[in-house]
């Protein structure tokens, strides 16, 4: 855009101000020039155009009427061109512009209107050129900031060199990554996180103290963060919007870099868990891996496993929904037959677990506790240096669960704890204990949020003392005939046995839960007895079946 002041300052146009209009009117932006001699040009004028006229309309309308029409179209002003027939601007036109508050300029006979059009075109060309140069210069500065590891703060520093804007960068977890010229409280951060979770993400939000424009930042299409400007989108000039959009694209590179680093760290952390669990030769690599993460393998180590309890409830609800639609026989849900909704739920679950790992890592970093955080299939495990009494570990876990609950409203996080290992070589048992404690908590509606393995049932403590390979072989051998039968005949013997044990061996309650007749239930359990050699009517045999299923769930 251009201003009337800029045209007046161009001495080659020989423009003279006859009426400046209201204070600041000559510095207001104008969009273009419009040459007209129509008595009423308002239907053809765009807002903020500058009217060029020789006054030929005076034979049809008065200056007051012409000015009223121009004013109604919200034009930027009038340039009156002198001619041999009218060597002086009509005083009535000057008076009308003064009364209407409309700027009026006069141009000499020697200068054609095309000179004004050319001058405006040159201004636009210069503006575009400066915009391109500015974008290239800013792009170079942003690229330099990213390549040197300045991160989101470096991007904001580049932006604020040219634009005095209140800015912040907030990720999808509601964490403030950087800020310049503003502060966001926890409530505002949660509003931003909620806006980014929408599909598509919000582009403007009411943060309580006013509206803010959001420029989404995404590495792989989804909004992983947002560049926030604490001004409404409509109030941002095009140049500022362009700069913010450019900065958001560069922030996407930074997010992609961080995600790549996190993915590598998570993969190495996952491999570390496998090494701990496998034992044997690979166990010798655990110490070096822990050192790479800044964890002392020679010192005491604790294991904390977190998950969301409602995930187990959701799985139970899915099975119940399936059985509700088939009263005669429970339905087994197979991965190969998953619906699009189920696949979306799996993707959302994976994203949530990744976010959970981020929150856990952030909490432990804030607490100054060196740790390795790894996402498992159904949980997230933290291996951490522990230099305090063991009875203080649940206190830390309680605070961690509270942090997670605040970041994931509506979810119920639980944490299972194992015993403290004296060094890296003793991690396997505490890891198994921690995961088993977490699994039990997930399956306990309304139960405690944090528990240690020693606080669980006695049978789990006893199982924890037995070699895992021996337990696995026992469970595998006992359950193998049931699983082979179910796979070959598409029957439900194992789910039926699980339901029977879950309902404490009550026939009527189990039959009702499975939506089958009690006789059908008896027939199935008779078949279980034939295949396993364990009679569900004998306590000793029932204990074997119960332990086999418990061991299977612990693996």
UniProtKB/TrEMBL annotation:
> What name is this protein filed under?
Helix-turn-helix domain-containing protein
Sorted alphabetically, which Gene3D superfamilies does this protein's record hold?
A: PucR C-terminal helix-turn-helix domain (1.10.10.2840)
Give the CdaR GGDEF-like domain ranges: 281-440
What is the species of this protein?
A: Nonomuraea montanisoli
Pfam families assigned: GGDEF_2, HTH_30, PucR
All copies of domain PucR C-terminal helix-turn-helix, residue ranges: 495-550
Could you name the domain of life of the organism this protein comes from? Bacteria
Assigned protein family: Belongs to the CdaR family.
Q: Where is the Purine catabolism PurC-like domain?
A: 25-121
């Amino acid at each position: 855009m251009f201003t009337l002041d800029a045209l007046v300052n161009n001495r080659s146009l020989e423009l003279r101000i006859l009426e400046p209009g209201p204070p600041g009117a000559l510095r207001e932006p104008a969009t273009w020039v419009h040459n007209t001699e129509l008595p009423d040009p308002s239907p053809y004028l765009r807002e903020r155009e500058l009217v060029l006229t020789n006054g030929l309309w005076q034979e049809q309308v008065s200056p007051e009427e012409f000015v009223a029409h121009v004013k109604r179209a919200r034009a930027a002003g009038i340039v009156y061109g002198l001619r041999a027939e009218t060597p002086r601007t009509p005083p009535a036109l000057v008076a009308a512009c003064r009364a209407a508050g409309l700027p009026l300029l006069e141009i000499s006979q020697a200068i054609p209107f095309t000179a004004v059009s050319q001058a405006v075109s040159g201004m636009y060309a210069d503006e575009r050129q400066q915009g391109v140069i500015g974008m290239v210069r800013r792009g170079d500065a942003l690229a330099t900031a990213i390549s040197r590891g300045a991160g989101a703060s470096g991007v904001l520093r580049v932006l604020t060199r040219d634009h005095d804007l209140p800015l912040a960068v907030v990720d999808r977890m509601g964490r403030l990554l950087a800020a310049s010229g503003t502060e966001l409280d926890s409530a505002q951060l949660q509003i931003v996180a909620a806006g980014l979770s929408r599909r598509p993400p919000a582009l403007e939000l009411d943060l309580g103290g006013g509206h803010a424009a959001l420029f989404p930042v995404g590495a792989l299409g989804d909004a992983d963060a947002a560049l926030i400007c604490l001004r409404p989108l409509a109030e941002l000039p095009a140049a500022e919007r362009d700069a913010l959009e450019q900065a958001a694209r560069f922030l996407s590179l930074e997010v992609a870099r961080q995600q790549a680093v996190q993915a590598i760290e998570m993969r190495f952390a996952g491999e570390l868990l496998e090494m701990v669990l496998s034992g044997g030769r690979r166990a010798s690599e655990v110490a070096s891996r822990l050192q790479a993460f800044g964890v002392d393998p020679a010192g005491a180590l604790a294991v904390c496993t977190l998950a969301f309890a409602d995930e187990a409830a959701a799985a139970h609800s899915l099975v119940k929904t399936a059985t509700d639609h088939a009263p005669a026989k429970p339905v087994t849900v197979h991965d190969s037959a998953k619906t699009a909704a189920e696949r979306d739920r799996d993707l959302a679950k994976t994203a949530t677990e990744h976010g959970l790992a981020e929150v856990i890592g952030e909490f432990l970093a804030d607490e100054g506790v060196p740790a390795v955080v790894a996402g498992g299939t159904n949980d997230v495990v933290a291996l951490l240096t522990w230099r305090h009494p063991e009875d203080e570990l649940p206190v830390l876990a309680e605070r961690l669960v509270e942090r997670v609950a605040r970041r994931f409203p509506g979810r119920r996080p639980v944490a299972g704890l194992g015993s403290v290992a004296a060094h890296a070589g003793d991690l396997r048992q505490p890891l198994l204990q921690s995961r088993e404690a977490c699994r039990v908590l997930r399956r306990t509606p309304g139960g405690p949020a944090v528990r240690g393995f020693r606080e669980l049932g006695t049978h789990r403590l006893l199982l924890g003392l037995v070699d895992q390979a021996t337990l696995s072989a026992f469970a595998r051998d006992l359950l193998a005939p049931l699983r082979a039968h179910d796979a070959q005949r598409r029957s439900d013997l194992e789910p039926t046995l699980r339901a029977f044990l879950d309902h404490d061996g009550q026939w009527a309650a189990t039959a009702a839960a499975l939506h089958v007749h009690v006789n059908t239930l008896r027939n199935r359990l008779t078949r279980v007895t034939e295949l396993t050699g364990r009679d569900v009517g004998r306590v000793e045999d029932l204990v074997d079946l119960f332990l086999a299923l418990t061991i299977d769930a612990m693996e």
